[in-house]
Each structure stands twice: as C-alpha cells, then as structure tokens.
Write a structure and sequence with these properties.
single chain, UDP N-Acetylglucosamine Acyltransferase, domain 1, 15% helix, 7-stranded mixed β-sheet, Rossmann fold
C-alpha cells in the first residue's frame, strides 16, 4: 500500500499554498484539531477526518501547513503523540531538492529500496554503480535499476511523478535523463555513448496562441532491448526505438521507429533496415561476421 497523505493545520497558510501542493501530491484527507467535536464531512473538496481516525490510519503521512516555527513545533508534537509521521508543506515546495548517489542509495536503502518522505522510491540491487546521481525536486517519482548496469556517468533529474527504468546489462558512458509526469523506459543490453540526453518534457510550457491549450505535454520515451545510442544523441518526448536498432551520433528525434534499423539526422530518419550490431571494439578487432564477435547479444534479438 502506498502512503496516504493527510493535510494537517488548515488555516491561512493552507489557503495560500494548497493548490501548489495538490499539483505535487494527492491529499486524501484533511485534519485539524480546530474541528474536534464538529460535524464536518469535507473541506476544500477533500474529506475531513478526526484525529482519532488519523491515528488509526495505516501508511498515513501528515503534511503540516504552517510557517511560524512555534506552530510547526506544536503541530509536530500533536502528531508525534498519536504516532503519525509528518512532513512540512514548505519542504515540499522547496526547489532545492535532494541528490543521491549510488553509494548513498545503497547505504540508506533497505531490502533493495531507497525512499524518502515525499514518496520518491529507487529500486536497486547490490550491483548498483557509484557513478549514478539522482536529483529529485518533486514527489511521487520511481526509478528502477536492473542488474549489472555498467556506468561511467549517469545523471537523472526528476521533477514530479517521473519514472525511469533501466534494464539489466546496459552500458552507459555518459547520459542525462530528465523525467517529469512521464516515463523513460530503457530495455536490457542497451549501449549509450557520450553526452546522450533523454527528456520527457521541454522544461517550459508552450501553448497554442488561439486556443491557449498546451501543445508540448510530457510524453514517455521507450527504448526496447539492445539499442545503441551514439554520441550526443538527443531523444525527446514521445521517442520510441525498436529492438536491436542504432541511433546515429548527433541525431535528434521524438519519432517512433521499428526494430533493427539505423536512424540518423535532424530530425532523425531511417537510413538502413534489417541490421544488428555488436559491442566489440573496432579499435581492437576487425570482424567481418557477427559469429566472429566476442559480444553476440544480437543473436538473442534477431
């Protein structure tokens, strides 16, 4: 069961910041000692519960709406007495965020899961690289690392409700991933060269001038198994790359491409079909047939 967020301390500060908080998380209930003994079913469109009922909720976490330090301390004291974990609305709205490395994830996590008070979770195993950095500004994010991912440098930037999954056996030289309100899925046995960027969003909003409707909403990025992305590849919201395919150096795309193709250019297009590839280093070997290669993972995906 996931966390149940309960707004606590419903007053003037709540009226100022509640809409911003609702953009970042769902408040399932509201609670306040000022309502003790009153017959109030809901407030601001959210069900109201008593402190007695709050104390009995499983997986509950209170969000404290207060700015004055003494008020914060008083409310926190109330919640401690009834055994309810809590966080402050101010902290949720902060843009400073949290940065965790692979080393910190392993040190602070338990049973293969690292999580924080904002509902962000990272799933990992003992093979997680130290060369991973996850920067978290928002809430409700999930990252899953597969086994035996080889990393020189991986930086993940998360806003709100982003999801990143990297499949087992993937090799990364240097990539940056930006995810918010959408997912980045990377399959097994993929290979990333240097300065690769994947973005589920454009960082800022763009609207149609006539309708004022958003035209650049966040979209998923999907790379299927055994995809090779060349240096400085730029994969934008909506990109899908089929199994066994290659993305050429400096390619830019938001398109969808089938299995076993090479794409290149700006915007990227298919330049060769029916291909497969090997990780063997051309500096050190000059094989003329796949079966001569040391790395023959491609045979699994033909």
């Amino acid at each position: 069961m996931g966390l149940i967020y309960v707004g606590y301390g419903i007053g003037y500060y709540y009226s100022l910041v509640s809409e911003k908080i609702k953009e970042k998380m769902k408040l399932s209930y509201l609670c306040d000692r000022q309502w003790d003994g009153l017959n109030i079913d809901s407030y601001d469109g959210i069900p109201v519960i008593s402190r007695d009922r709050l104390a009995k909720l499983e997986c509950a976490k209170a969000v404290i709406f207060a700015r004055v330090p003494t008020t914060k301390e008083s409310i926190a004291g109330d919640l401690k007495k009834i055994g309810i974990d809590y966080m402050f609305a101010d902290d949720i709205l902060s843009d400073q965020g949290t940065v965790v490395t692979g080393e910190r994830i392993r040190a602070e996590g338990a049973d293969g899961i690292w999580e924080d008070e904002r509902g962000n979770r990272i799933f990992y195993d003992e093979t997680l690289s130290d060369h991973i950095s996850v920067s978290i500004r928002g809430v409700g994010n999930t990252v899953r690392f597969g086994k035996n991912i080889m990393v020189n440098q991986l930086v993940i930037w998360l806003g709100n409700h982003g999801r990143v999954e990297i499949g087992a056996g993937t090799t990364i030289v240097n990539i940056k991933i930006y995810a918010a309100y959408a997912s980045v899925f990377i399959g097994k046995d993929c290979l990333f060269s240097s300065e690769v960027v994947l973005r589920t969003h454009d960082a800022h909003h763009i609207f149609d001038r006539n309708t004022l409707s958003r035209i650049n909403d966040s979209k998923d990025i999907v790379l299927h198994d055994h995809v090779w992305v060349g240096a400085r590849g730029y994969l934008l919201a909506g990109t899908e790359i089929g199994t066994g395919s290659v993305v050429g150096a400096n390619a830019v795309t938001s398109g969808q491409f089938k299995d076993h193709v090479i794409i290149a250019g700006v915007p990227a297009k298919v330049i060769r079909e029916d291909i497969c590839w090997s990780r063997d280093d051309t500096d050190l070997a000059n094989h003329m047939h796949l079966e001569e290669c040391v790395h023959r993972e491609a045979l699994k995906y033909l």
